[in-house]
Amino acid sequence: MTPVSALHAIRRVDWPAGPPLLQWSPRQLCAFANSDGGVLVLGVADSRAIVGVPAERLDVVQQFVTNVGRENIEPPLDHLLLIDSVELPVATGSRVVVKVDIRPDYYSVHAPRGARPTVRSGNTTREISMEALPRLLARRGSLAPVDERPVLNASAADLDREAIAAYHEARFKRPSDDLDRFMRNLKLMVDDDSFGSHPTVAGLLVFGRNPQAHLDGARIDIVAYDNDGWRPFRGGKVKRA
Fold it and tell me: Same domain for 120 and 175?
């Protein structure tokens, strides 16, 4: 369980309360992801009184937030969510709330399904105007090639460094002096100012140890051709790797 003192360093905290959660949750999650990140705390009343989340409902609430991030937001942002339970002191002892840490996404702009993207403005959530949306897309790096975008639910350890080192030696006929720099130069890995180094989509597809664990929607199609130019090989099959 996260210690209470961890909340003291949070710059942006929102305390949503009351059902139905779907009225606020996609908007709030998108707003934080499209801005500088933030924290949602579930289990606090409108008066800011800590009512807590019943122990038997903790798993349900945490799964609900994950499902909202995956099913009710485009593109999905469940990979940006860090969900934990926090014990807070009250007059009669302590109560447990659910803390949702939303990391900022520097390469995508998220929107509730069927609605416009939202951002944080001070302590409020607002929709992005059509005039401001292109500027936000450019600023967030959404125009960068997909292959060069980081995969935030993977780490540098998910890349096969031995295979990358062997590729460097085969290509340049010598071992690499700085393999991390080589990976960054090839856009196999990028650095995130807030959360460290992550492999890119290209890095995982080419040198990932288990790319399907992080890129379940990606695939490589390999087609066989005969020697007669570009005519597909008769009876040939497409192999998906």
Answer: no
Same domain, 83 and 42: yes
CA distances from 156 to 13, 159, 208, 233 (A): 30, 6, 9, 39
Question: CB of 160 within 8 A of CB of 133?
Answer: no
pLDDT score of 224: 67
- Average pLDDT value for the chain: 79
Asked whether residue 31 falls in the same domain as residue 71, the answer is: yes
Tokens of 154: 């993977």
From the centroid of its chain, how far is CA 85?
20
Residues 32-43: what's their mean pLDDT? Answer: 87
SS3 call for 5: helix
Written as six digits, the tokens of 92 are 């009669």
Same domain, 189 and 109: no
SS3 139: helix
Q: Of 60, 12, 20, 52, nearest to 36 (Cα)?
A: 12
Q: Indicate whether 227 pLDDT > 80.
A: no
> What is the distance between the alpha carbons of residues 43 and 6, in angstroms, rounded to a whole number?
17
Bridge partners (DSSP) listed for residue 191: 197
Same domain, 75 and 131: yes
Q: What residues have CB less than 8 Å from 92, skipping those under 6 apart?
A: none
End-to-end CA distance of the chain: 40
| Residues 160, 94 share a domain | no
Q: For residue 104, what is the DSSP state?
A: P
Give whole-number Cα distances, 228 to 225, 232, 234, in Å: 8, 9, 11
Q: Alpha-carbon torsion 134, 136, 141, 145, what sign?
A: negative
112 part of a folded domain: yes
Task: Name the H helices within 38-81.
Answer: 58-71
